[in-house]
Amino acid sequence: MTPEITLVLCILAAAVIFLITEWIPMEVTALLSLGLVALTGLVTPVEALAGFSNPAVVTVWAGFIIYSQRGIDSHRRCQCHRTFRTENGRKT
Question: Which mean pLDDT values do the consecutive 10-residue runs of the chain (92 residues) have?
Fold first, then answer.
C-alpha cells in the first residue's frame, strides 16, 4: 500500500468517526476533509474546489443552511414549552 493510499484512508476514517460521533458538525467535517486532502497534496487546490461549481452541491449546501436555521427555531420553541418536575412530582 502506497503512502498516498494510507493517508487517504486515515483521512476517511477520521471523517467517518467525526460524522458518526458528531464531535464536530457535519459541514465542518466535510470541509476539513476536503482541506486536508488538498493541503497534503493528494489533489490540487483547483481539483479540490471543482465540486463547488456543480449546482447540485450548492443546492445541498443551501438545504443544510435552511435546515439548520429551522432546527434552531424548533429548539427554541421546545425550550419554551418544556416543563420541569419538582421533587414532589408537581409540574412547574
Answer: 94 96 90 93 90 85 81 53 56 55
Show me where the domains of the chain are located. Answer: 1-53, 54-84
As a whole number of angstroms, the longest Cα–Cα distance in the chain is: 65
3-state DSSP helix/strand/coil % of the chain, to nearest 5: 75, 0, 25
pTM of the shown model: 0.59
Closest Cα to residue 65, out of 26, 15, 35, 21? 26
Distance set, CA 45 to CA 8, 13, 36, 61 (Å): 16, 22, 11, 20
